[in-house]
Amino acid sequence: MNAPFKLRPYQQEAVDATLAHFRKTDESAVIVLPTGAGKSLVIAELARLAKRKILVVTHVKELVEQNHGKYQSYGLTGGIFSAGLKRKESHHQVTFASVQSVSANLDQFRDEYSLVIIDECHRVSGEETSQYQRIIELLRQQNDSLKVLGLTATPYRLAIGWIYRYHYRGFVRGEDDKPFQHCIYELPLSYMINRGYLTRPELVNAAVAQYDFSALPQDRFGEYAERDVNQLLSKHKRVTRAIIEQVVEVAAERQGVMIFAATVEHAREVAGYLPEHETALITGATDLKDRDLLIRRFKQRQLKYLVNVSVLTTGFDAPHVDFIAILRPTQSVSLYQQIVGRGLRLDEGKQDCLVIDYAGNHVNLHHPEVGEPKPNPDSEPVQVFCPGCGFANIFWGKTDGEGLVIEHYGRRCQGLLEPVDGVQDERPQQCDYRFRFKECPHCGAENDIAARNCHQCQKAIIDPDDQLRDALKLKDAMVIRCAGISLVADGSKLKITYHGEDGEELGESFDFSKPGQRAVFNKLFGRRFANSQAPKAFSSVGEVLDLRALLPAPDFVIARKQKHYWRVQERVFDYQGHYRKANEV
Q: Which of 274, 334, 493, 513 could be disulfide-bonded to 154 (CB atoms 3.0-4.6 Å)?
């Protein structure tokens, strides 16, 4: 049967990429398409082409219904397994299900499935006990060549970063295991907007006072405790009123307004300032029948304002929305994109979608490519070329006024190296160049700064915390938190002074006329020169002094007492651990 829809070129490319990938391997895969790109059509086409049983799972009933509807529009019949939709059908060739319902009824899914498709797959964690992983594990017991495909607009989670390891354009997203192995197709949001597939977002700064959430503590996911947020907001009721007054004023020229509040208490306050007969408030506690009715009235434009708390970021489709007001803090690029995505669908007469962020989130909608938590609020995506393979990495970092990278937080090059000629069926290997590293004391190999065992010789590497703790116990040892270094030439010798934050000093010298000492200096400092972006083998003291500004300083220096002076024994670079570094709060 022919498809009733003609797929857009990129949708067909995504389908072709999937077929090509799973012909070669059973390893799990991800397709990245922006919100509004028509993921349900890609799913429907893959389901139509499938010859054996497949399961399509997602986390909200709206998406179950939407994906099922697209498949049915092909003239095919698929089942729905969702308590929220009051249907539990698992005998069809294609079943569209909610992850919660399948997880609660695993005994009804003991048939042999060939493919599992997970919509909004950024919600999949790597934990074996998660609902998604339990489902996959069960289906693998019936079919050990089960294929798993995820689709998402935002392929990262705050806790783990990227949800996949290998990208089809030739780079890798970290060394740790990820929920998925391969990203096989990706389309940026800018592509969709520039080609008229999505509405252009008009991002403007709030013209009235904003909330300042910067002082609130964050959890490991980059989010804030509801109690802390409520406490802060309770002190700024005038700010909230001023914000809503501006929203109402701007909304006079708009069709549909979605307001994303920070907490339930905040949402109620916001709704109280809006015209009652034009406003709906939806929270996680809203009765499902009431929620469906309110959403229907909003979609039919009987209501103009829809205030919600964390419940309408995915699976909600109202194309006429042309004004998004963000009143909640988040460090999650994924969540931010989902929020803005609610207003980017095309609609007749719609020119753009106004987005006003009143929470000062400072998220770059078009450049979230780093995919890892920000090390600090001042970080921005920076491009760092690998001195080993030349790959252009994107890391969090900082630039100067001219855009030059002055600092970055990348650890290892993300480039993938093609297999050696003549080696068949070998997976490309990640470039082994490390910008930050811990040297193995046994074989000299460079390891990740968090490694416990050497990747080359497998021997244990001394933990820097143990190193510092042991030194601090010794009466004849001195440990300083290094706040900087200074250099002085003495003939062919280079004297280095390490300055502690409390004024302590330790010193050592390297005689550049002696190849051995020159080699030690270059291994310590030259290899790390300019954030390891441009490793250098210095041949003279003068050369070092000319480029001293780009020399790294260790985080800690450990020395031992030798009769009348302190002898430097260890320099700890790129420290990560329990001890505070110099000038940290």
A: 334
